[in-house]
């Protein structure tokens, strides 16, 4: 009986420790995300999005000759604009583009997938 009481006390203590552990983990996540200037908007539309590393291409070449990284606003464009990025992670519909640096920084936070 003494042993059971001890086990129960341990269980209570362990259960009590759990929320603190979870809070700790959330605080670590927040240091990557919420304080990052690139996350001023929460961008729910990018949650779990699929991207492919490819040469930049316009979704609508008649109207758009460039795009911007969804996070840092780095410019994507064709070879005629030499100081722009020419390759990045684009969605299948070419609508959203993320530069390689931001993709690596946020792929875990947003659960990005890569399609072939
Ligand atoms: Zn970027």
Quick synopsis:
The protein contains 2 helices and 6 strands, in the order H-E-E-E-E-E-H-E. By secondary structure, it is of the alpha+beta class. The strands form 2 sheets. It has a 4-stranded mixed β-sheet.
What does this structure look like?
The protein is an alpha+beta fold and 116 residues long. The protein folds into 2 domains: 1-32; 41-114, no CATH class. It has 2 helices and 6 strands. It has helices at residues 2-32, 100-110, and strands spanning 50-55, 66-68, 75-77, 87-90, 97-98, 113-114. Strands 5-4-1-6 form a 4-stranded mixed β-sheet. It has a two-stranded antiparallel ribbon with strand order 2-3. A hairpin with a 6-residue loop joins β4 and β5. The protein starts with a helix and ends with a strand. Bound molecules: zinc ion. Zinc ion binds at residues 69, 71-72, 74, 99, 101-102.
Succession of helices and strands: HEEEEEHE
Bound molecules: zinc ion
User: Which structural class matches the secondary elements?
Assistant: alpha+beta
- Poorly predicted runs are 9-31
Sheet with most strands: strand arrangement: 5-4-1-6
- Calculate Rg over CA atoms: 22 Å
CA-CA gap between termini? 60 Å
Number of helical elements:
2
Number of domains: 2
Strand content: 15-25%
